[in-house]
């Protein structure tokens, strides 16, 4: 049983059916460490050689449909999505522009998936066009053709519709909207077809069995508002389509869908099969590269956990270290009541020695009793807010000569007269890095 909400232009379909929420990107399985050391070294070498292509693939993936449209020079689609201008109406700002918040910003994968322009959402949308064409094929109707512009229209529309539960009305194309169905064609086609047949059998709307879509719209507008989506799906007038979906509505499974239709478009039109293949030619290499690299790293990480203790924590002399690789460890915490701390150059665990290369973000944050710190010779990174709000911290000696980064607010809210002892050879560059991290203007810097 489906509960219905109906607006003048579109039936809002709400179902309790679930959406699995899964996407094709990145296999997160953890692999058992059953490989030899030689195999491990080979995996590390391969991962290193793939790192650049992996980073490039992630960047493309996070650009979503903008990256795809860029790759095929679809300027009009990009103008709609990236600039938010209506190329059909004197470049006016789209009503839906403010809803395109995740477009082409290089966000994380999880953030990108929340926008209709994500590659995963576009892939699923193309699959829905195939379903629509399968329905039309069984009725002896021509398959809809597809264009980048219409796909972009649907993407702008559905971002708006997911939040506002309404049509944005930016374009002159016809549009079906649905909220909450696990399959929108269950509502747009199957349910509405049944309602039409039931009405014909019941004689509720005299003569409707002999009317076309326009005649039903003019004669029985209220009923047409319930079944108009069905006629869009089976229309002989409309020849071209675009489709989009996004998770973000409050109804049913949380998915909103938009399909746009037109019979008038003189550019960028492609047969569905060709369009789908063009998209997959862009999508598959990206996802395959990401999955291959992630698979390598999962195997590498699993081996390192088992063989090198990666992830294991150990506390020595009030400082907690965490092993991060075959040869390195980081400082991740300290005892809260520590007054003086010395960060070692190395730490030995299970007979293996690890260099201490980093002080993690927030490692000593809010240590109210901490007054003195010695930073080891191997530390190359002091993380964000590493010593934030250590108000009694007055003496810091930096033995390292490999320090590359001091994170934001690393020494903010420490003692106003804090003194830094810095190696003579690194004094100028380290002083600059430390000052940028938010130290007191009265801080003192000394060479040793």
UniProtKB/TrEMBL annotation:
Domain SCP: 131-261
Organism of derivation: Eubacterium uniforme
Superkingdom as given in the UniProt entry: Bacteria
Residues of the signal peptide: 1-18
Pfam family, one: LRR_5
Protein's name in the database: Uncharacterized conserved protein YkwD, contains CAP (CSP/antigen 5/PR1) domain
Gene3D superfamilies (alphabetical): CAP, Ribonuclease Inhibitor
Keywords: Signal
Stored InterPro entries: CAP_dom, CAP_sf, LRR_5, LRR_dom_sf
């Amino acid at each position: 049983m489906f509960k219905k909400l109906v607006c003048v232009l579109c039936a809002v379909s709400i179902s309790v059916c679930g959406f699995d929420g899964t996407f094709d990107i990145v296999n997160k399985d953890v692999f058992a460490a059953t490989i030899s050391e030689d195999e491990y070294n080979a995996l590390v070498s391969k991962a290193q050689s793939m790192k650049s292509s992996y980073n490039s693939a992630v960047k493309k993936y996070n650009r979503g449909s903008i990256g795809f449209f860029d790759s095929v020079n679809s300027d009009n689609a990009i103008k709609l999505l990236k600039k938010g201008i209506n190329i059909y109406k004197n470049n006016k700002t789209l009503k839906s522009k403010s809803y395109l918040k995740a477009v082409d910003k290089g966000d994380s994968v999880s953030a990108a998936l929340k926008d209709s322009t994500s590659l995963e959402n576009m892939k699923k949308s193309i699959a829905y066009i195939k379903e629509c064409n399968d329905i039309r094929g069984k009725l002896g109707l021509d398959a809809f053709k597809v264009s980048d512009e219409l796909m972009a229209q649907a993407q702008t529309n559905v971002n708006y519709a997911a939040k506002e539960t309404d049509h944005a009305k930016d374009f002159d194309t016809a549009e079906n909207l649905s909220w909450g169905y696990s399959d929108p064609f269950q509502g747009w086609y199957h349910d509405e077809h049944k309602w039409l047949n039931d009405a014909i059998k019941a004689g509720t709307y005299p003569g409707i069995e002999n009317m076309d879509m326009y005649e039903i719209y003019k004669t029985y507008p209220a009923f047409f508002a319930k079944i108009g989506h069905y006629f869009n799906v089976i229309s002989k007038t409309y020849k071209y389509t675009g489709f989009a979906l996004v998770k973000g509505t409050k109804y049913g499974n949380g998915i909103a869908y938009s399909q746009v239709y037109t019979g008038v478009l003189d550019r960028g039109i492609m047969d569905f099969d060709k369009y789908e293949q063009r998209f997959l030619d862009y999508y598959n290499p990206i996802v395959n590269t990401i999955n291959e690299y992630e698979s390598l790293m999962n195997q590498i990480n699993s081996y390192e956990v088992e063989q090198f203790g990666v992830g294991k924590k150990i506390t020595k002399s009030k400082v907690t270290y965490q092993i991060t690789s075959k040869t390195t460890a980081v400082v991740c915490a300290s005892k809260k009541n520590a007054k003086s701390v010395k960060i070692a150059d190395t730490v030995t665990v299970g007979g293996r020695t690890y260099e201490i290369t980093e002080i993690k973000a927030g490692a000593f944050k809010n240590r109210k009793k901490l007054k003195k710190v010695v930073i080891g010779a191997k530390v190359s990174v002091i993380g964000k807010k590493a010593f934030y709000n250590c108000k009694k911290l007055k003496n810091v000696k930096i033995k390292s000569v490999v320090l590359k980064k001091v994170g934001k607010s690393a020494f903010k809210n420490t003692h106003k007269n804090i003194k830094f002892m810095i190696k003579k050879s690194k004094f100028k560059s380290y002083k600059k890095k430390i000052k940028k991290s938010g130290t007191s203007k009265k801080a003192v810097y000394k060479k040793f």
